[in-house]
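Hi Q.,

Before the meeting this afternoon, I wanted you to have the iron/sulfur cluster prediction in hand. No need to reply - just skim if you have a minute. The sequence and ligand are here:
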Amino acid sequence: MNEYDSNRIYDLVKKINYKKTNNIHEADCYVLNTCHIREKATDKVYHDIGRVKKVFKNKNKPIIIITGCVAQAEGEVLLEKEKYIDAVIGPQSYQNLNETILKLEKRIIKVNSTNFDVIDKFDNLNSIKNSNNKISSFLTIQEGCDKFCKFCVVPYTRGSEYSRSIKELIRESIDLVENGAKEITLLGQNVNAYNFGGKKLSHLINEISKIDKLERIRYTTSHPIDFSEDLIHAHLEFDKLMPMIHLPVQSGSNKILRSMNRKHTVENYLDLIDKLKKNKPSIKFSSDFIIGFPGENDIDFQETLELLKKVEFINTFSFIFSPRPGTPAASMKKIDLDIAKERLITFQTVAQDIKMNYRKNLFNKKSSVLFENAIGKKMNYFGRDEYLNSVIVRSDENLIGKTKEVKIIDGNQNTLFGELTQNKICKGFAA
Ligand code: SAM
Ligand code: SF4
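Predicted structure with the ligand bound:
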């Protein structure tokens, strides 16, 4: 979501004649767009500012603005502690960015803009064309969260659930496709909680899938309790919807899920996976796990490993519990850090084995790859298959923006290597 936000920030500042530079020595204004989901986020801000200070040691200081969730959560402290920062702007206040920069050009004041004004934000952004021109583009459709998992800062930094209008989203999708997008990933902290005047995510997918040159649709991140029947069926109905679902579960222990306030059990989760697979057998899953949540004992951890093996996630994101200031879990009794680290290593070893076995099974099989960019000078092209696996292929033909059938010949944890087949791609083709 921060990548989407950063792109929209570029679109916004163009209106006051600012443009992006890759030369850090010549920037007049730095916008550090931050994430607060795990610890060290604030340290990173101070570290990045230290780098800017070095660059501008004997020169006039540039304008420094901190945006994103660190600004929302710790804005006042940042302004107080680091005098080099000129403004903090929370994720629901980007509409105030240009006005802030113009004020700061005149060195008027320090600015703290951290109100939750999500309607005003999108009203403002909707009037500015999305100029992102990536083959695979992000589109924020929903923001915020009302679920209040005990470990998570999102409800406090992004505010409560808000869904953008279908009309705005179709228009922005058309803009993205006209800019060259072949794939759109619909984004939301709880993307499947999307609800605009009773129209749900499946309705939006239906509408967006009518855009002719758009080939692929994805959505992330889903919450298990918001997975309604219509969304399950959407995976059968719409060819353009990719058969890969990111479905965070966090833990395989009902005791821990309860204590996290996740609102689902392991059984609910497995039933949902079962339903999705019965509906479309080629579907696969990735997930997020928090290891070492307060109260997690060996039995809870073993249950998490069992769940991991049972579902055979083709990708996982796992982190040790990170106490976030202001969340209920921050005041819960932590487990021993060494035990948590040991469990994380065990978890990631098992997860990698599952992933590698899955990947080895892809060797000598064909998959459908949408190519996004060239890499190096040797006519290598990077793309992704339907399951988001990175694939590299060598070709004399320019493959950017094309979807091709590829035979996978080799691979490692991160990348698959393949060669083009002579076949034309057929719809609904799964590895
Ligand atoms: N809304 C999604 C859901 O509930 O499934 C997840 C969105 S959250 C922004 C992304 C991931 O960050 C979570 O799935 C969780 O695994 C991880 N996360 C959030 N807070 C965390 C914390 N305090 N410590 C460790 N990981 C955390
Ligand atoms: Fe955070 Fe997701 Fe829980 Fe919301 S549902 S509080 S975003 S982890």
